[in-house]
Write a structure and sequence with these properties.
Helix content is about 50%, strand content about 15%. Helix 2 (about 25-40) packs antiparallel against helix 3 (about 45-60) and helix 4 packs antiparallel against helix 11 (about 285-295). It has an eight-stranded mixed β-sheet, with helices on both faces. By secondary structure, the protein is of the alpha/beta class. About 50% of the residues are buried. It is built from eleven helices and eight strands. The chain has helices at about 5-15, 25-40, 45-60, 70-85, 110-125, 140-155, 165-180, 200-210, 225-240, 255-265, 285-295; strands spanning about 100-105, 130-135, 160, 185-190, 215-220, 245, 270-275, 280-285. Strand 7 and strand 8 form a beta hairpin. It binds guanosine-5'-diphosphate. Guanosine-5'-diphosphate binds near residues 106, 113, 114, 247 and 248. It is found in: Cytoplasm. Part of the signal recognition particle protein translocation system, which is composed of SRP and FtsY. It catalyses: GTP + H2O = GDP + phosphate + H(+).
């Protein structure tokens, strides 16, 4: 994960090795490398520039007060700023309620259905909840089958209705079913499409309005870089989601999405997907991610 970015940060700090103190010149040279590394990781220009400006100001400001080496100082400041960029503190998802209702949104192929299964598994085994999975993709029978396969594998019940073509009605019926059958969290998996389209957006907005979820999550493939960020913005403008799930972080992802989504939509990343298996999810902690990036 982010190997290339880590290597590039490391290389940038090498400029400072053997230097007695931070100067305008050596810090500028280092931060030029840092900025290039961020841009190559698919971080947008504005964010990369703001990042290096903040680091520079802090470094110059703290220079005289410290006994640590310039490269240690800059590493520390970059760590603080990376954490800030990714949202600071971890934020939990809200699955409390009677039942708690979690609405999943995102494009087709983002990993929505896989993550719905992972979340059900996590709630069942780590939070001692009794989740119900709901298949609301009325266009792709294969998506309903996929959720049933996952449910069976996990021992989690799946609610679906292949005759009903209105996702709002399916979601409402599922909540009624959950209430009378002792399920305390409902996870609603919705239809995604290959690209943003109005109909999909209207549909998910209608589902959200009808069921009033305790948590609306937007799932996005980290490998898609700035596209992921643009998609997040479009979904957030329409449905004002609560948190982001970044999937496929086990792949050869460069890091841009993880580093910029928070800045663009002002919503935290809450979980990351790190594989196809049902236990391949991690709670997202900005400071642990910054540790990884800086090695
Ligand atoms: P959906 O269309 O959004 O419901 O996407 P799916 O859940 O069907 O996932 C699309 C593909 O991505 C499937 O082949 C999944 O196995 C795969 N996938 C989902 N999450 C991850 C992940 O975190 N890591 C990897 N490597 N693959 C994932």
């Amino acid at each position: 994960m982010f190997e290339n970015l880590s290597e590039r940060f490391d290389r940038a700090f090498k400029v400072l090795k053997g230097q007695g103190q931070i100067t305008e010149i050596n810090v500028a040279e280092t931060l030029k490398e840092v900025r290039r590394a961020l841009l190559d990781a698919d971080v947008n220009f504005k964010t990369a520039k703001e990042f290096t400006t903040k680091v520079k100001d802090k470094a110059i400001g703290r220079n005289v007060l410290t006994t640590v080496s310039p490269s240690q100082l800059l590493t520390k400041i970059c760590h603080e700023e990376l954490v800030e960029l990714m949202g600071g503190e971890h934020e939990d998802i809200n699955f409390k309620g009677n039942p708690g209702i979690i609405l999943m949104s995102g494009l087709q192929g983002s990993g929505k259905t896989t993550f719905s299964g992972k979340l059900a598994n996590w709630l069942k085994n780590k939070q001692r909840k009794n989740p119900l999975l709901v298949a609301c993709d009325v266009y792709r029978p294969a998506a309903i089958d996929q959720l049933h396969v996952l449910g069976e594998q996990l021992g989690v019940e799946v609610f679906s209705n292949r005759e009903e073509k209105d996702p709002v009605k399916i979601a409402q019926a599922a909540i009624t079913y959950a209430k009378s059958n002792g399920f305390n969290v409902v996870i609603v998996d919705t239809a995604g499409r290959l690209a943003i389209d109005e109909k999909m957006m209207d549909e998910i907005a209608a589902v959200k309005q009808a069921i009033n979820p305790t948590e609306t999550l937007f799932v996005v493939d980290a490998m898609t870089g700035q596209d992921a960020v643009n998609t997040a913005k479009a979904f957030n403008d329409k449905i004002n989601f609560d948190g982001v799930i970044l999937t496929k972080l086990d792949g050869d992802t460069r890091g841009g999405a993880a580093l910029t989504i928070k800045t663009v939509v002002d919503k935290p990343i809450k979980f990351v997907g790190t594989g196809e298996k049902m236990d391949a999810l991690d709670i997202f902690y900005p400071s642990r991610m910054a540790d990884r990036i800086l090695g």
